Each structure stands twice: as C-alpha cells, then as structure tokens.
C-alpha cells in the first residue's frame, strides 16, 4: 500500500496540484517519470481507485489522502510495478485500505478495531461486514463495496 500511495502522490507533488486530469496523471507516471508504460499507468490509476486511495470524477483524479504528508524522495523509483498490478485486493483489503487512506490511522489500528468488533459479535458475523461497520463508524464511504460483498456472500453458499 505504501509504494502505491507514493506512486499516486508523486504526480500531484510534481505539479503542486490537488487534482489532475486522468490523462495527465498517467502521462506523468509513464512519460515524465518513465516509471512504467502508458498502459501500466492506466492500470495503476484504476488499481488506486479500486483501492480507495484515488478518487475519479469527470476524468479528474485526486488522492483521498493528504499528499503533504507523503515523502517522494528525489530519484525514487517504485519497485515491483508488476507486483502492484498483479494485486487483486480482496474486499477486506479494499475496506482496510479505504479506512487508512481517509483517516490518520495505520493498518495495525484498523485491524485491531475490526478484531474488537469480532469479539463484540462473538465471531458470528463475516469479517468483511465487521470491517464495513468500522469504516462507517470512521465516516468512511464504502457504498461502492456493498454489492461486491453481497455477491461474495451469496455466491459462497
């Protein structure tokens, strides 16, 4: 997640803007930084949106986290672009990443809160449902995840 957040933050820091067009975002990653091909840059953008760290509206993208807090060292080159693109984050990971990107909290704390919920409900609820509850308590919009979770639960019967 941290490498992906750094990759996402870099174009915004370079341009000193809070939002960029989707094409400009991809152009900077692929042609300015030469970190990846244009196709990979497009896939990184989609992965960042799916992971909840980048928001897209009307062909404009902006991060869901404060880029001022991100350090992008001069000469930074992301390692494992292929690994990032091969990731297919599960629903639980998406929820956790969404919570992290929208709150000043680390993964350990998020998992701890989910575990507390699990104990509170005597492990009777699906872990993803508990994660959604934690996200909602933290004012984190996860509306786009409900259908995916519903499909997963129904299809796993």
Explain the layout of strands and helices:
Elements: H1 2-15, E1 20-21, H2 22-32, H3 38-50, E2 54-57, E3 60-63, H4 81-86, H5 91-102, H6 107-120, H7 127-137, H8 146-155
Antiparallel strand pairs: 1-3, 2-3
Helix pairs in contact: 2-3, 5-7, 6-7
Give a concise summary:
By secondary structure, the protein is mainly alpha-helical. The protein has helices at residues 2-15, 22-32, 38-50, 81-86, 91-102, 107-120, 127-137, 146-155, and strands at residues 20-21, 54-57, 60-63.
Overview of the structural elements:
The protein has 157 residues and is mainly α. It folds into two domains: 2-86, Arc Repressor Mutant, subunit A; 91-155, no CATH class. The protein is built from eight helices and three strands, in the order αβααββααααα. It has a three-stranded antiparallel sheet. The chain is elongated.
Question: Key features?
Answer:
157 residues; Arc Repressor Mutant, subunit A; 2 domains; three-stranded antiparallel sheet; 8 helices; elongated
Mean pLDDT: 87
Question: Which shape, going by the Cα principal axes?
Answer: elongated
Low-pLDDT regions: none
Spell the H/E element sequence.
Answer: HEHHEEHHHHH
Number of domains: 2
Strands of the widest sheet, in order across it, are 1-3-2
The residue fraction in helices comes out at 55-70%
Distance between the termini: 31 Å
| Whole-angstrom Rg | 17 Å
According to CATH, what is the topology of the largest domain?
Answer: Arc Repressor Mutant, subunit A
Summarize the biggest pleated sheet. 3 strands, antiparallel
Query: Total helix count?
Result: 8
CATH architecture of the largest domain: Orthogonal Bundle
Classified by CATH, the class of the largest domain is Mainly Alpha
Overall SS class: mainly alpha
Tell me how many strands there are.
3
Range of strand content:
5-15%
Organism: Methanosalsum zhilinae (strain DSM 4017 / NBRC 107636 / OCM 62 / WeN5)
InterPro entries: DUF2240 (IPR018716)
Protein name: DUF2240 family protein
Pfam families: DUF2240 (PF09999)
């Amino acid at each position: 997640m941290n490498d992906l957040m750094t990759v996402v933050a870099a174009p915004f820091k370079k341009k000193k803007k809070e939002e960029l067009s989707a094409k400009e975002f991809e152009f900077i990653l692929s042609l300015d930084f030469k970190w990846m091909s244009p196709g990979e840059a497009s896939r990184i953008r989609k992965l960042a949106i799916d992971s909840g760290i980048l928001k897209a509206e009307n062909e404009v993208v902006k991060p869901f986290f404060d880029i001022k807090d991100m350090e992008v060292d001069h000469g930074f080159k992301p390692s494992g672009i292929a690994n990032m693109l091969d990731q297919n984050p599960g629903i639980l990971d998406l929820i956790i990443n969404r919570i992290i990107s929208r709150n000043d909290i680390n993964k350990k704390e998020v998992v701890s809160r989910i575990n507390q919920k699990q104990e509170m409900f005597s492990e009777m609820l699906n872990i993803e449902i508990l994660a959604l509850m934690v996200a909602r308590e933290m004012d984190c919009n996860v509306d786009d995840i409900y259908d995916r979770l519903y499909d997963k639960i129904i299809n796993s019967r």
